[in-house]
Amino acid sequence: MCAAGIAVSERPCWTAPDHEFPVAERRRYDRRVPEATKPDYASLQLPAGPPGRPYVLTNMVMSADGRAVIEDTEHGLGSDIDQRLMRELRTLADVVLVGAGTLRASGASSRVRDADLERLRAARQQPPNPIAAVLSGSGDLPLDRAFFTADDFEAVVYLSPRATAERRQAIAANGRRVVTLDGDDDLASMLRHMRGELDAGVLLVEGGPSLNGELFARGLVDEYFLTLGSLVVGGGPTLTPVQGAQPPTSDSVTGLELMSAVRNPETSELYLRYRTRHRSAARP
Predict the structure, then answer these.
(1) Sequence ranges of the domains in the chain
(2) Can you name the residues that pair with 56 across neighbouring β-strands?
(3) What CA–CA distance (Å, rounded) separates 135 from 156?
(4) CA dist., res. 105 & res. 112, Å (int)
(5) Which of 1, 195, 248, 269 sits most deeply, having the most CB atoms within 10 A of its CB?
């Protein structure tokens, strides 16, 4: 069923134009998963971000009852196809960002973990993996995780001025770049650095919910990708994909435009892509 260029079926009736990478490479990758089971995020063409910051994507998975975690982690909410879509979105990104809580709970990297996707990045003259980044207020980070120990991707740690000199020195000793942000506006300072110093055109944010909430509240999200899982978590109150520090109001909501919705008949997941309606307010 299609309406106004939006697909709500197993196969999308609208797709964005392909990137200019070799047709043979695209066909080899596309044959791996039947198109009817998933959208093709790897071939999306994205517009430029507003002046002074990258174009910002967020990607989350959620249960059918709106939960973003099971036992404090997102693992188990999505299928292998959901994981592949995450890697396809990483293919588009120059930087992959997580909050400190997500790094502590689940670990983090920017790996695409797929040789064909790496070739697509190479065709666009990008390194095999995007730069990984984490945003932390305290600098309390697990320095034994792959984010700090891996050598197959670059990583940047963005720290609030609240972090102690001892924590900054411990992180820097691991060899990762440490950027101390402007304490008056950490988000704006981080996005300016990504655009100006890292030459990042596309930022992919992979959570957690609190970081998502801050970005949505500031009008700094351009597109929201959501996998709706086919399970009910139940239980007591827990995190949703977007969390805020203050109670929501009618003035604080973010309007969304549905760009595509693809149902996977094998997993009963629904893959949603939204674009935010108020990009004019999205300034760092």
Answers:
(1) 55-217
(2) 203
(3) 9
(4) 20
(5) 269
55 contacts 48 by C-beta, under 8 angstroms: yes
State which amino acid sits at residue 274. Y
Q: Which residue has the tokens 């071939």?
A: 43
Of 3.40.430.10, 3.20.20.70, 2.40.50.100, 3.40.47.10, the CATH number of 55-217 is: 3.40.430.10
Distance of CA 195 to the CA centre of its chain: 16
CA–CA dist 146, 136 (Å, integer): 17
Q: What is the maximum span of the chain, computed from C-alpha positions, in angstroms?
A: 58
The answer, yes or no, to whether residue 182 has pLDDT greater than 90, is: no
Say what the pLDDT of residue 4 is: 38
Letter string b/e over residues 22-47, b meaning 16 or more CB atoms within 10 A of that residue's CB = eeeebeebeeebeeebbbbbbbbebe
User: Averaged over 1-24, what is the pLDDT?
Assistant: 41
| Cα gap 57→125, rounded to integer Å | 21
